[in-house]
Amino acid sequence: MVERSRAVDGDLPEAFYEPLGGGRFASTPATAGPWSPSLQHAGPVAGLMGRAFERTDPVPGTRVARVTIEILSPVPVAELEVSARVVRPGRRVALLEGELTHEGRPVVRATAWRILTAPAEVPGTVHAPAPPPLPDEGRTFTTPGLHTHGYLSAMEWRLVEGSFFEPGPGTTWARSRIPLVAGEADSPLVRALTLADSASGVGSQLDLAKWMIINTDLTVALHRDPAGEWLCMAASLSVSPRGGALCEATLADGHGEFGRVLQTMIVDAQPTP
C-alpha cells in the first residue's frame, strides 16, 4: 500500500506521481482525466515519458526536440512502470524509445528524437504571431458530467478565447499547480508535455454531448525549450465526415512560439443512454 501524498491547495496531491524506485511510480488522483476518476489524462503520462527520455544516456549539448506518444489503451490511475532506451545512438542525432506498463501490460509506447543544440549565433526565425497577454484571472471548471477534481484542477487555466469542451478553437495560458514527480522540479520539456494533450479540449469543434473524440497519439515538436511556468496554447480541431479528426496547436511562452502539437483522433457518436 502506497501512502497518499500530502495535500496542497486543499485536496490536491503533492504531485502527479510518487516515485517508488526502479522506474515505478504511484499515480495520484491528480492524474485523472475529465472522463473518469480511474483513468488518466495523457498530459501527465506524456510528461512521465519525457522525463524518462531526458534521463536516458544524456549527451551534453543535445536536447529532446520531438516526442510521440502512442496510446495503446486507457491508462489507469494506478502503479506504473516506465522504461526507455537509445535505439539509434549518435553525437548529433539519437532516437529513443520508451514504454509505460501497468501490471506488465504495455499501455503506452513512445519515441523521441534527441538532437544537437543549434549554435548560439544562428539567426532566429519565428513566423507565428506573439501570444496574447496572460489574463489576470483563471477559471473554475463546473461543466456537468466531467471529472474536474483530477488533472483539470491540478492545472491552473487562464482562458483567452473559447472555452473547454465547447465547440470552437480556443487559446489558453496554463501552468501546473504541482510537480510531475514528488520532490522534483519539472524540466521545460516536462512542462510542455504535461500541457500538450489538452489541445483537443482547448480546440474542440464538436458538441461532446453528441460526439466522442479520442486521440490515439500525441506528437510534440519543439524548436526551443520553453521558459517560465506559464505556457500558452492555441488549438483547433479539423473534422471530416467518413474520415476522422486532427487537432493542431501552437505552444508559446512570454518570449513567443516555441513548438507545435498534433493529435490524430477517432470520432464516433456518443453511446445512447
From TrEMBL:
User: What positions does the domain Acyl-CoA thioesterase-like C-terminal occupy?
Assistant: 136-267
The protein's matches in InterPro entries, at most eight in alphabetical order, are given as: ACOT8-like_C, Acyl-CoA_hotdog, HotDog_dom_sf, TesB_ACOT8-like_N
Q: Where are the transmembrane segments?
A: none
Known SUPFAM superfamilies for this protein? Thioesterase/thiol ester dehydrase-isomerase
| Domain Acyl-CoA thioesterase-like N-terminal HotDog intervals | 32-114
Task: Specify the protein name.
Answer: Thioesterase family protein
Name its species: Actinomadura montaniterrae
Q: What lineage does the source organism belong to? A: Bacteria, Bacillati, Actinomycetota, Actinomycetes, Streptosporangiales
